[in-house]
Amino acid sequence: MDSKELATKITEILDSKKGIDIEMLDVSEKTTLADYFVIASGNSTTQIKALADEVEYVLKNEFSLYPDHVEGRSGDRWLLIDYKDVVVHIFHPEERSNYNLEMLWAGKTPV
Fold first, then answer.
1. pLDDT in tens, 20-33
2. Helix axes 3-16, 45-63, angle to 10 degrees
């Protein structure tokens, strides 16, 4: 599975679990950190954790893919899952607005 297919699959998983404002950003021309960032929001720390758990569960069980690194498991309002070429950011809406990764990495105008 290439990085675009993986990012698309992660987007589908997040959507199936009611992730909010899901974005898939191609950052391959801007950084060597990853090819794609998948960004989504959840309304509570419980939902953020559930979204992350579902991404990890599906990718592990259907594709034998495991994250290289995970940050934010302790009830944080921003959780990051690093699949090397695809990095997943799941935010509480306030943190997402504050960090505004879409504007930083894709040049999108703030809403």
1. 999 999 999 888 88
2. 130
Per-residue tokens: 60:
């592990």
Domain range annotation of the chain: 3-101
pLDDT in tens, 22-68: 999 999 988 888 999 999 999 999 999 999 999 999 999 999 999 99
Diameter of the chain by CA atoms? 37
For residues 44 and 56, the answer to whether their CB atoms sit within 8 Å is no
Residue with tokens 């950003």: 25
Superfamily of structural domain 3-101: Beta Polymerase, domain 2 (3.30.460.10)
Q: What is the dihedral of CA 15, 66, 52, 6, to 10 degrees?
A: -20
* Number of C-beta neighbours around residue 70 at 10 A: 14
Query: Who's near 15: CB < 8 A, 6+ residues apart?
Result: 22
What is the three-class DSSP state of 65? coil
Q: Is the pTM of this model over 0.70?
A: yes
